[in-house]
Amino acid sequence: VQLVESxxxxxxxxxxxxxxxxxxxxxxxxxxxxxxxQASGKGLEWVSHISGDGARIKYGDSVKxxxxxxxxxxxxxxxxxxxxxxxxxxxxxxxxxxxxxxxYWGQGTQVTVSP
Length: 115
Fold this sequence. Notes:
Elements: E1 2-6, E2 10-11, E3 17-24, E4 33-38, E5 44-50, E6 57-59, E7 67-72, E8 77-82, E9 91-99, E10 102-105, E11 109-113
C-alpha cells in the first residue's frame, strides 16, 4: 500500500487549495478514505471521510461548508478541495486508508495559511 499526498502550499487567508492523494497497492474503490490533519504541537484531527463508492461523505465540524472531499476511482486518487482557508487550517494533511482492520498513512503535505 502506498499513499502519496501533494498540493500543499502557502496560501493567504480566504484562499483555496486542492490536495491530492495518489493510492496504489490495493483495490482503491473497495475502501473508504479519510483526510486527517495535524497542526504543529497538536494532536491528530480527523477532517473528512468518503466511502469507497463516494456515496457517503462526512466532515468534521471545523471544515464543514468549506472543504469538499472527492475521489476518482479510475485514477486511484483522493482529493480535498479547501476553500475560505483560515490560519487555523495550517497543518500537515494526511490521507488515510483503512484496509482489513489496519490503517495506512501517506507522508503528508504541508498547508500553511498566513498573510
